[in-house]
Amino acid sequence: PGEAEGNQNSGGQYSGIESIAAAVARLRTTFDSGITKPYSWRIRQLKALKALLLENTPEIEGALIADLAKNPAEAQLTEIGFVLAEIENTLANLKRWLRPKRVATPLLIAPSSAKTVREPLGVVLVIAPWNYPVQLLLVPVIGALAAGNALVAKPSELAPATSAVFARLFARYFDARAIALVEGGVPETTELLKQRFDHIFYTGNGRVGRIVMQAAVENLTPVTLELGGKSPVYVDDTVDLKTVAHRIAWGKFMNAGQTCVAPDYLLATPAVAAALEPLLVEVIAEFYGADPATSDSYGRIINDSQFERLTGLIEGESVVTGGDSDARTRYLAPTILHDVSRDSAVMAQEIFGPILPIVTVDSLGDALRYINAGDKPLALYVFSDSKAVRRRFITGTSSGALAFGVPAAHLLVQGLPFGGVGASGMGAYHGERSVAVFSHDKAVLSKILKPDTFNLVYPPFTQKKDAF
Ligand code: NAD
């Protein structure tokens, strides 16, 4: 990830390194003028985004087909409809989320009143990846606008069709004084990171996450890092394996496996693995037909370097199903790997493609030890009907999210924080949390001057010690 093959500027309003510093400076002037602060301005921008999506759905769907062969029905669930639901939830609740919250004050300073007041941070930067190029750009943008910030959005150069569509539509729908979109790859992002922002929200891989955090140090800019990693699935023998196979195949092969919360690999005992393998083969045929290459429900790999990396991971492994590929169309079949060694290449990195390695364990304890020996995952999935097993996972593991019975669907719960821990990231968003990420909750205290009930704390202290 991160190579800038598709690194071209396709006419974004502020593309070109020369103008980046000027564009950011202009956004700061806008923010300082106060126009982004009123509730009415925020609502107007959110409604503009809603109109942008509703009035240009076919064009956005077309861009997703061009970039990822993403089926429009899948795009509704995971991209366009997903963002619309986030807008609706924000429109319905923003007034309440922005209301100052009263806080009790101690007797020592009575009479007084205290509250927190949510204020925008200023000018913020949202850097998005290529795999869900609509959702992962726009959901953070919703939070930034709802919180009253000016912003720069930087879509991924590796999804160039989607990037170009938004470059055009942002300028048409949003208040261009406060919202800029910069297209481009490493040079443009590097230049952006030299500017002073009040928050940087980055989604992508950990290598670039480190670059972002390092750049943020200069101006003490807070960061949210939405990163990835290997999200495990554990299956035991207490569950209906046929349903499990459906759920896992859905989460894994959606977007051809290029999903940050996709199940990365499967842990099971040899007996469970043996029972699950033929079921997974059946389900793949049910979802995508005998030849997934001809299914319009199945996506394609984003670019040649990812394609080569993924096909390389299959080499030398024992293939249960799939494994075939076509470099010209970047098709890689839904692939299941049998009894993969723990020190194989496919277990040494985040897969981020349609390959599911099955790693056998001899017990629950073995599975937990294996998971805990690795980086903290973005998501951890468990299929077990045993309460005791579920409890072991809740208390005995750490991950961005833990889901029982279904992968990836926790993103649909707007009240749940979405984010990682440790190597899978820092900070979380969605719903009210998105507004909190891009706001400062300012502490506001007020106390009347007359009568001066505060004289108890003034020096000299000699006779007053006992009063405290
Ligand atoms: P990517 O290559 O599109 O990179 C993301 C962004 O970083 C892009 O905008 C890109 O221009 C920028 N970038 C790349 N190199 C840079 C550099 N040297 N300096 C500054 N900016 C640079 O996407 P990716 O990183 O390949 O995305 C895949 C990764 O993202 C996976 O690890 C996946 O798990 C993770 N991911 C996480 C989430 C989440 O929400 N936590 C969501 C999707 C993807």
TrEMBL record:
One of its GO terms (cellular component) is cytoplasm. Pfam families: Aldedh. The active site is at E226, C260. Gene3D superfamilies: Aldehyde Dehydrogenase, Chain A, domain 1 (3.40.605.10), Aldehyde Dehydrogenase, Chain A, domain 2 (3.40.309.10). Keywords: NAD, Oxidoreductase. CDD domains: ALDH_F3-13-14_CALDH-like (cd07087). One of its GO terms (biological process) is aldehyde metabolic process. InterPro entries: Ald_DH/histidinol_DH, Ald_DH_C, Ald_DH_CS_CYS, Ald_DH_CS_GLU, Ald_DH_N, Aldehyde_DH_dom, Aldehyde_DH_NAD(P). The keyword Zinc-finger does not apply. Residues 17-444 form the Aldehyde dehydrogenase domain. The keyword Oxidoreductase applies. PANTHER family: ALDEHYDE DEHYDROGENASE (PTHR43570), ALDEHYDE DEHYDROGENASE TYPE III, ISOFORM Q (PTHR43570:SF16). Belongs to the aldehyde dehydrogenase family. This is Aldehyde dehydrogenase. It comes from Subtercola lobariae. The lineage of its organism: Bacteria, Bacillati, Actinomycetota, Actinomycetes, Micrococcales.
